[in-house]
Amino acid sequence: MRIFKNRPFSKWASKEGLNYALLLAAVDEMERGLIDANLGGHVLKKRVAVGGQGKSGGMRTPAGVQGWR
User: Fold this and answer.
1) What is the mean pLDDT of residues 17-42?
2) Which of 4, 34, 44, 56 has a Cα-to-Cα distance from 66 of 20 to 30 A?
3) Which residues, 6+ apart, have CB-to-CB distance to 50 below 8 Å?
4) Measured between alpha carbons, how far is residue 37 from residues 5, 31, 33, 56 in Å?
């Protein structure tokens, strides 16, 4: 799967401590079907653990996915 980030998302992610390794881990989980919500229109929501807080204390990030089942 190819991953694209736009400039506003990249700025927000770096400010919040969401590094590339955490983003890759979240995408890997999404590929395995582990998502939090399907918002429709190929947009999914995924929890990401940031700053040692765990997923429940971390953040939720939207992801646009093409060809999602």
Assistant:
1) 84
2) 56
3) 16, 17, 18, 22, 58, 59
4) 20, 14, 11, 14
